[in-house]
Write a structure and sequence with these properties.
202 residues, alpha/beta, UDP N-Acetylglucosamine Acyltransferase, domain 1, six-stranded parallel sheet, globular, binds coenzyme A
Length: 202
Amino acid sequence: MGKIFVIIYKLMHGFHKCMKLMCQVIMNFLYRFLFKKMEGVIEDPRQLLGCEYISIGKNTKIHEGVILTAWDGYEGQQFSPSIVIGENTNIGENCHITACDRIEIGNGVLTGRYVYISDNSHGNPAHGEELDIRPSQRPLYSKGPVFIGDNVWIGERVCVMAGVKIGDGAIIAANAVVTHDIPAGVLAGGVPAKVIKMLRDE
Ligand SMILES: CC(C)(COP(=O)(O)OP(=O)(O)OC[C@H]1O[C@@H](n2cnc3c(N)ncnc32)[C@H](O)[C@@H]1OP(=O)(O)O)[C@@H](O)C(=O)NCCC(=O)NCCS
């Protein structure tokens, strides 16, 4: 009897996988018309917003459960957002990338799961008078664009905050919160992220 359940489970699992793959192929065909540029693949995303402001390069894979939001308006404000992801880049499962200004991710980048990359916040924390407004209703504020260079490796659960530049080939250790620029070719980690060591002989 148990064997029958195993067979049914395997059949259902296979069927589910096939259906998922078929939907993915159809959705990725549609993305080519919805996105500014789409030459990669997105697996079953959690949320997509402002696809017309998002470019994804050749051979780039956006894994399952990712949230990609480019906000051109929020509570009456207007923005010209852009998210540009280069070629041969891998964005891990359940990452969240959100822009009202600009986020650029280079070629050959690898991110772990649950990475958060944002160029904006609910209100400007320097404006104390906003504290009487519900956070969700505070004006969206960008401290500046985010640039992530080529061949950067970003570990699991890293947060990359607004106005930050990460240089080519840098490695950002798991759980880091990047609040300032990180130079090329270094290992950085911690909260807030600091250079731990240089990875190239100068
Ligand atoms: C960054 C990383 C690659 C470093 O690996 P490593 O070469 O074995 O590291 P080292 O042992 O040389 O560490 C160097 C220093 O960085 C520190 N360090 C390593 N990882 C750290 C982290 N996540 N946060 C803070 N400090 C860290 C170490 O404690 C060590 O400090 P010390 O010299 O004072 O002891 C690894 O720790 C890491 O975070 N990998 C990410 C893995 C991941 O998220 N994968 C997702 C799949 S893509």
